[in-house]
Amino acid sequence: MPTLSDIARVQTIKILGVTISDHLSVNQHVTNVIASCAQTFYALRVLQAHGLNKDALEGVFKAVVIAKLTYASPAWWGFTTAHDRQKMESVIRATQRHVLTD
Question: At CA 18, angle to CA 97 and CA 40, rounded to 5?
Fold first, then answer.
């Protein structure tokens, strides 16, 4: 039968899609979400290039990007740093500036 000493210690754990470090930091989660949003940003540009109107683009933006950024946020938002929050806000501003305003 395994004992507590047999359990490996890990630096991060992913629980229900949220990555939390052993220092209760969600920096890696924020980085992962922003990387995923960058892929969505590209998809929004492709949809825009194919003629999707602004209202539909905003709908896709809210359904995908905002949903990714805020998924389970009540559970992890308190562990973010000002830098983490700033990075997430910059993703929203960049998308609004480059995709939703053209």
Answer: 30
- Residue 26 sits at φ, ψ, to 5 deg, of -110, 20
Q: State the pTM of this model.
A: 0.80
Which residue, 67, 72, 66, is CA-closest to 92?
A: 66
- What is the tens place of the pLDDT at every residue in 44-64? 889 999 999 989 998 998 899
How far is residue 56's CA from residue 90's CA, in Å, rounded to a whole number? Answer: 22
- Residue 49: burial class (beta carbons within 10 Å; 0-12, 13-18, 19+): exposed
- Quote the CA–CA distance of 27 and 20 in Å, as a whole number: 8
Amino acid letter, residue 27: N
